[in-house]
Each structure stands twice: as structure tokens, then as C-alpha cells.
Amino acid sequence: MHDPIWMRALLAVHVAAGSGAFVLAPLALVTVKGGKAHRRWGKIYFWCMAVVASTALIMAVYRPILFLALVAIFSFYAAFAAYRVLGQKAAWKGERVIRGLDWVAAIICFTASAALALIGAIRPELVQNLRIPAIVFGFIGMRISGRSMWHFAHPPTEKMFWWYAHLQGMIGSYIAAWTAFCLVTIGPLVRGAWWLWLVPVSIGLPAIIITTAYYQRKFASMHKTAIA
Q1: DSSP state of 33
Q2: 1-36: per-residue pLDDT in tens?
Q3: Is the pTM of this model over 0.90?
Q4: How many helices (H) and strands (E) does the chain have?
Q5: Phi, then psi, of 4 in degrees rounded to 5
Q6: Cα 39 → chain centroid
Q7: What's the rounded Cα separation, in Å, for the pair 81 and 168?
Q8: Which of 7, 132, 194, 203 has the fewest CB atoms within 10 Å, i.e. the most exposed one?
Q9: Which class for 205: exposed (0-12), middle (13-18), buried (19 or more C-beta within 10 A)?
Q10: What is each CA distance from 70 to 19, 130, 138, in whole angstroms?
């Protein structure tokens, strides 16, 4: 049975937005941080990811594919949190910059991620028998949203906390884009290879750790120089 026209149109929009996000993320990463080009490409990338997540969620519910629906929620939350933290820079001063929207989004992501991990562990057939990817992605989603809620309740004391959160969230959402790319291009050639879902994560997480450590050393060095 063929999908209705509106589903095919939605898929076209999904692919176009995903392709845009896939190309734009590197542009935002290589441009000068805080510059006009960085902000422009970053903002377009964010909205591309918003379209990708919303269309994926609609298609996943229609078919239905529970695994993709839950993954779409936490994948977008990474970009959402990275975008929102740019307006929360004053949190380290103790200013109230967290809004209800931030709490709602984090709670939804945590709930969806917990459900993904739990269902993957006890009823994997409900998530396309992708037990290990469901558990791994579920815990990643819980960590991202749980960490956000912790910071909401415990204001950060480090001035550059937002830099790390923005960097980690954007790279995290790009990992999701790479995952989708691998599934579309390589997936049909290696059917049943659940490990394919974990390849971008296994590469992306070390990249996040290394990049974060680099900027922590850089900011620490700049701070020492300023004091001296």
C-alpha cells in the first residue's frame, strides 16, 4: 500500500530540511564563534532541525513507528537546549532566566527518553527490536534533559557554562542528523545491522568530550593571563 500524497510531501520536506541541516552544521562550526555568519548558519540549522523533528514525529505516529517518534523528541531537544542556553548566559550571576518552556521541554524529553530505554529493555518488539539502540539513546536523552533540569534548579557558577552547553547540544543534534544519513544511505545495504545506529554516537561523543576539554583549557589559560 502506497503512502498518501500528504505523507510523500511530508517526506520530501523532511529530506530537504535534513539535507540542509547536514550541510549547514559544518558552516556554523567553522565560522568565527559569535560572528554574524556563525549566528546566521546556526539559526538556520536550528530551524532545519525543528522541521526534521516535527515531520519525523508526524510520520512516525502515522505509520506507526514508536522508536522513531521517541528518538525524534530527544534528538530535537539537544538542538533546542543548545539554542535556548544562548539566552541564559546570566544564569551564573543568579538571575532568573529559565522559563516554563524550558522546564516543559526538558520534562517531555526526559519522559520520552525514559520510555524509550524502558521499552527497549522489556518490550523491544515495540521499538522495532532495536533493544540496544533504544536503551543507549534513551539514556543519552535522559542525561541531556536531566542535566538541563539540574542546572535549572542549581544555577551554574561558571561564567562560560553556556558555551559548553551550546557546543555539546549542537554537536549532539548533528549526531542525530548523521545517524539518519547512515540509515538512509547505508542502512538498505546492511539490513538488520542494529549497530549502524550507534556508529555516529560512538564517533560523536568522543568529539564532544575532546572539543569541550579543548575549550576548557583555552578559557582557563585566558583567565590566568587576564589575572596576571
Answers
A1: T
A2: 577 888 889 889 988 888 888 888 888 877 777 788
A3: no
A4: 7, 0
A5: -65, 165
A6: 18
A7: 10
A8: 203
A9: middle
A10: 21, 13, 9
